[in-house]
């Protein structure tokens, strides 16, 4: 019971006094502030302890790190370029793959299923090397950047095929019926009604895939693309200071994923507020 | 082959003299798996007529409507809209020619759904011009002009650039009606257009529909709104278990139903006051006897004691 002379009446309870409403709000805000503070303090403590433990090894030479950091950071644009291009092509593979997985024509369904099965059944690292080294045996020679982007997008496209298939299937039946009743062909319905809505549904999932892609793009260093990881491991092994260079690379990847995670949260919040209600 | 006639179909008051039916449903049957949902329905609709189909849920009324534009594939029988006839052929997948015919029928017979089914990713105006441009091949300017005309007709010009998510249910359904009208169809199919609406929003949709009916639009309306049927229909079909039990003008079928089953349905829907014992409506004889009908009145928990007393009184009269 609140002891503020708060009396229920036949016309519904009286409104709480304004200062009480304010007190409740202030108490909520205090709780939120405390939570935030404790969260930040814990992170500072843990990261500090980690940094201290690393420094204790005696392996870390700051001068060396500062000397090579600019070169390794020079790989950031390459990493981002490879990731962005790969996610774009992966979306294309995924759309085609999803349409194939929803096809009523057996051969098309079979091809799409084979694609997904093959890609999901073999390691990404193997696929990247295969594209770079084995395709020339068939007379297809791709420059390393193209090979890396192709392998990454082919691989991610297979995983995202299932995401897109689920997105397409999430569109209510009524939408398809309405399009059919207006006289639209199946193809027109897919292109104008279903896919535009399905894309909106899978945007958060594409964001997750992109963040994973930033880290998996390190694997294209195998085909000598000079992105962050390649630069870190090459400079590291040349001077036998791999520990420090990889530390720099780790910090770069971590920062990148934090930045893109925040961007993704913003995007999702905007989608939630959008006037388009699916 | 000679067509079975819908012996109860008579051209409505607004129908031009000598006009041929615009919609023919010929001995239509529909199975869902082993369920025999429609058991031989024949229906003819003349230009500028409004037809209401009433019946309990599960009676097959929506299925019948959805067979007319082939959202459901008929099992037996034929559908004809504006001279294009498609005969049921469920054993064969449809040829390209057949699919084209079905699309033509759909263009001529536009449907308004219970759940509106507006396209949520398109603004109101874009909902209205999508099919005219991409299906009919109308020029964009012309499509926009037509869309604005019909939007004005349903009283929603100011919602032109809104997304459907910002509209009330009644507004959504009015937009859906405008969307159907922009295809300039020969007949409008309404599938319980007010059943998903908040009761306070039903009126605005029914007003639009009544206006359309009085202006001479050809309409087939599946509905529970008896007031609308009485006001706007040229003919009312009462359907039960996949067959038309009673057909006639509303003042007969709704006000003075001849068949016990129609009476019972109306008694439940309207309450006792509106139903009178009388002859006059066209009564389709059925094999079922009164006791059989009595046993088929649905789950007892839906009925109050008064309902049961009333039903028993009706049977005593027969």
What does this entry look like structurally?
The complex is a heterodimer of chains A (278) and B (318). With 278 residues, chain A is an all-alpha fold. Chain A has helices spanning 18-56, 62-73, 76-101, 106-120, 124-134, 144-169, 173-181, 186-216, 228-238, 242-273. In chain A, helix 3 crosses helix 6 (144-169). The longest helix of chain A has 39 residues, at 18-56. Chain A is flat. The two termini of chain A are 43 Å apart. The mean pLDDT of chain A is 91. Chain B has two domains: 23-254, P-loop containing nucleotide triphosphate hydrolases (Rossmann fold); 257-275 and 286-318, no CATH class. Chain B has eleven helices and eleven strands. Chain B has helices spanning 61-68, 96-108, 124-136, 140-153, 169-182, 202-214, 226-232, 250-253, 260-270, 290-295, 305-317; strands at 23-32, 35-45, 50-54, 76-81, 84-87, 109-112, 187-191, 219-222, 235-240, 243-248, 282-283. In chain B, a hairpin with a 2-residue loop joins strand 1 and strand 2 (35-45). The longest helix of chain B is centred in the middle third of the chain and has 14 residues, at 140-153. Residues 272-281 and 287-305 of chain B have low confidence and may be disordered.
Annotation keywords:
heterodimer, A: 278 residues, mainly alpha, MetI-like fold, 2 domains, B: alpha/beta, Rossmann fold, 7-stranded mixed beta sheet, 4-stranded antiparallel beta sheet, 11 helices
SSE inventory with pairings:
The complex is a heterodimer of chains A (278) and B (318).
Chain A: H1 18-56, H2 62-73, H3 76-101, H4 106-120, H5 124-134, H6 144-169, H7 173-181, H8 186-216, H9 228-238, H10 242-273
Helix pairs in contact in A: 2-9, 2-10, 3-4, 3-6, 3-8, 4-6, 5-6, 6-8, 7-8, 8-10, 9-10
Chain B: E1 23-32, E2 35-45, E3 50-54, H1 61-68, E4 76-81, E5 84-87, H2 96-108, E6 109-112, H3 124-136, H4 140-153, H5 169-182, E7 187-191, H6 202-214, E8 219-222, H7 226-232, E9 235-240, E10 243-248, H8 250-253, H9 260-270, E11 282-283, H10 290-295, H11 305-317
Parallel strand pairs in B: 3-8, 3-9, 6-7, 7-8
Antiparallel strand pairs in B: 1-2, 1-4, 4-5, 9-10, 10-11
Helix pairs in contact in B: 3-4, 3-5, 4-5, 5-6, 9-11
């Amino acid at each position: 019971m609140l002891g503020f002379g708060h009396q229920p009446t036949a016309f519904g309870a009286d409104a709480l006094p304004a200062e009480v409403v304010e007190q409740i709000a202030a108490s909520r805000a205090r709780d939120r502030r405390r939570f935030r503070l404790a969260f930040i303090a814990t992170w500072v403590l843990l990261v500090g302890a980690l940094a201290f433990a690393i420094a204790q090894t005696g392996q870390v030479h700051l001068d060396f790190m500062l000397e090579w950091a600019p070169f390794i950071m020079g790989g950031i644009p390459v990493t981002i370029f490879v990731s962005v291009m790969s996610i774009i092509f992966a979306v294309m593979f995924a759309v085609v793959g999803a349409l194939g997985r929803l096809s009523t024509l057996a051969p098309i369904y079979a091809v799409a299923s084979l694609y997904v099965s093959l890609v999901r059944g073999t390691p990404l690292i193997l696929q990247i090397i295969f594209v770079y080294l084995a395709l020339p045996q068939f007379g297809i020679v791709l420059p390393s950047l193209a090979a890396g982007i192709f392998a990454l997008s082919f691989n991610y496209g297979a995983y995202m095929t299932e995401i897109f298939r689920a997105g397409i299937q999430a569109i209510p039946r009524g939408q398809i019926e309405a399009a059919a009743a207006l006289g639209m062909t199946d193809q027109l319905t897919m292109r104008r009604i279903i896919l535009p809505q399905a894309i909106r549904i899978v945007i958060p999932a594409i964001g997750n895939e992109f963040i994973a892609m930033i880290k998996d793009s390190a694997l294209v260093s195998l085909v000598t693309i000079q992105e962050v990881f390649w630069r870190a491991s090459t400079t590291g092994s040349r001077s036998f200071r791999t520990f420090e260079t990889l530390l720099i690379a780790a910090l770069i990847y971590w920062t990148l994923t934090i930045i893109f995670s925040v961007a993704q949260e913003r995007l999702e919040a905007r989608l939630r507020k959008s006037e388009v209600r699916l | 082959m000679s067509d079975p006639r819908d012996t109860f179909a008579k051209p409505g008051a607004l129908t031009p003299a000598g006009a041929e039916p615009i919609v023919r449903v010929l001995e239509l049957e529909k199975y869902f798996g082993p369920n025999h949902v429609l058991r031989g329905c024949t229906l003819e609709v003349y230009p500028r007529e409004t037809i209401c189909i009433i019946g309990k849920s599960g009676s097959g009324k929506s299925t019948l409507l959805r067979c007319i534009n082939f959202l459901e594939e008929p099992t037996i029988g034929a559908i004809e809209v504006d001279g294009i006839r498609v005969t049921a052929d469920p054993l064969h997948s449809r040829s390209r020619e057949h699919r084209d015919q079905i699309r033509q029928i759909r263009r001529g017979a536009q449907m308004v759904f219970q759940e509106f089914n507006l396209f949520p990713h398109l603004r109101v105006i874009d909902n209205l011009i999508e099919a005219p441009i991409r299906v009919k091949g109308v020029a964009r300017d012309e499509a926009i002009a037509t869309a604005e005309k019909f939007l004005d007709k349903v009283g929603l010009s100011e919602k032109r650039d809104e997304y459907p998510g910002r509209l009330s249910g009644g507004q959504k359904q009015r937009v859906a009606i405008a969307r159907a009208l922009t295809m300039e169809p020969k007949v409008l199919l309404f599938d319980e257009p007010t059943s998903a609406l908040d009761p306070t929003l039903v009126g605005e949709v029914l007003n639009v529909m009544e206006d359309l009916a009085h202006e001479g639009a050809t309409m087939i309306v599946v509905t529970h709104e008896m007031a609308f049927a009485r006001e706007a229909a040229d003919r009312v079909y009462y359907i039960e278990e996949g067959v038309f039990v009673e057909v006639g003008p509303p003042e007969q079928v709704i006000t003075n139903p001849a068949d016990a089953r129609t009476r019972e349905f109306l008694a439940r829907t309207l309450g006792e006051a509106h139903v009178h014992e009388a002859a006059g409506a066209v009564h389709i004889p059925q094999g079922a006897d009164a006791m059989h009908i009595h046993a088929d009145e649905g789950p007892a928990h839906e009925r109050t004691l008064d309902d049961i007393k009333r039903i028993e009184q009706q049977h005593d009269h027969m």
